[in-house]
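Page 37, top half.
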Amino acid sequence: SPSPLLPSSTKDVTSPSKEREGFSLLKGALLAGVVVQNAALNVTARWSRVEALHREARGECHASPGAVVLVIELMKIVLALVLLAVEIKGNPILSVMKTTVTHPLDCLKVIVPAVLYVIQNQLLLVAAANLEAPVLGLFGQLKILTTALFSVALLGRTLGKRRWVALVVLTAGIATVQASQMHSDGSGDAGEKNVPLGLMMISVVASLSGFAGVYFEKVLKGSPISLWTRNVHLALFSVATVGLQVISGDFEEACPSNLVEYLSNGLGPVAWAYVIIQAVGGLLIAAVIKYADNILKAFATSVAILVIALVSSLFFGFALSGLFFLGASGVIYSIFLYGDLLKDLGPCGRCPPYLGGQERPSTPRGV
């Protein structure tokens, strides 16, 4: 990174207003990136499974969910090594090997989340094969609930009244979306739909995601290992886990027996798009954590939910009902309420604190 300018420097120093403008542009770009990534991830997850269904019907090779996850993890290794090389300005492979030898127990701690992520990502594709993209995106927000509950159980955290209300609203909103799907008229995209199975799978995905996140915080916090080295270890263990699964499984008759050919031929264009979006998404999230704030993340998630619904309605025949909009509104409200992001938004500031308003100082008696 460039050295900061000293006060005695004769160079032009960027004015604070220009710095703020540049930072605002960066935050705007991150907001747009998160919205596009979140929306595209859910849409491509669904349509990669529809694509696989069509390939199977034509007698063509189609990769299993495990094979898709394997390609994602391989791509993550490459990206993490590149970013580690930029960070250390040296050989990333030697750096990873040195860290592994120096901190072997710290490296082994990622086995648990690696296995969980492999299971979680495969179940996500099973859910995507049975749920349309808007429902998939909304039910994905269950991870807020599961993360909160695991934080209470494993980290001993206490949630205030406002967050408990947010979790109740989130659950009610998702239940409303579920009801809208149970009473749908069967219209929608060309893929298969098994709503009960899909909802069960995405609920398990949210539970695994919540536990893995809390596990990271509890076990890996304060580790001397850098973020990108940690990501390499995580992806390596994931590749070993899912690679054994893919190799030991039976390939479809239409698929080549060679693993490399199977992976390259078994993924269609939409599946490759899903792989790239999933792999690059982690980098985008890291940038948001570094440069943005909770308001931007919550706003991006909310906008993405609406974008998924509109795109699916316009291009894929998803039926938008009053129940769906009611449930989606509840989910979006709960995201902002849980993050305590409503108190500065106009009328919300006058609400009771547990509904998102400002905390009011207590007035001493007799005054």
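Page 37, bottom half:
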Amino acid sequence: PLMMDEEEDDGETYKGGGASVIETSVDDDDEDWPEGQVERLHLDDFAEYIGGAVNGKPHGLGSLLYCRDPPDPQGRVEYSGEFRQGVRAGLGSMLWRDGTNFMGEWKRDRPNGFGFEAYPNGSFYQGTFKDDHRDGMGVYEFADGLYYAGGWRQGRRFGSGIATDPMQRKYVLSYDRNGKLLSKHMFWDADEEGSEQGERDVVAQVLKVTVQVRKVAEKARGVAADELRKRSNFEASGFNLAVKNPGARRLASANAEEQEESFKDGGRG
């Protein structure tokens, strides 16, 4: 594993990406999607959307499945949650093919705000995000239980933080704006004489953020589960696709079973 003062890059790269609608479905009055008519949309990155829609764009609650063949170039499998005018906004959960899973707040089609992100190597981060980068305050915990808790900027450690080493000793670390380690000294527990106010403040801020993250992530998980359930029920009801865009006729003329298979069963490598 990385040592406490080393930099790690999981989750730094923007993995989102919007897509415009190229076809829409017939209207449906299913009250599960109250913020607009229910539509099945095929998007220009070969993703399939089922959920609330307004003016031919995802809006409200819905789920988005990305194509398996050809595989999505950004490695996305599915997103379930809230949309605003065609982009992810609100609470939602995204799964990538490598096993990375983000649950939390979205804005401008990217993770923004409180979120929880789990990585395929067993590590996870819970804290604040800005444009799909860890930014603000948060905790990164490694699979072996070591952690860094403190400030972040554009995906890198920034400002003050507390980390553990393999001997379970705690240290106070300080980083510059580029993630370069500036200083390191032993951390004293809050009830010991050597503890400094600044160290106690870092702990308090991180705890406050993680409590909020857990609340947001739990809500996002619930929203995603509901949308996947509704998608399953919707598929079982035999939704009749009505293609309205000539450019999408190639999809419409394909064998129905083959077409459905191209949007299902996206796995992680």
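Margin note: Confidence is low (pLDDT under 50) at residues 1-35, 190-194, 240-269.
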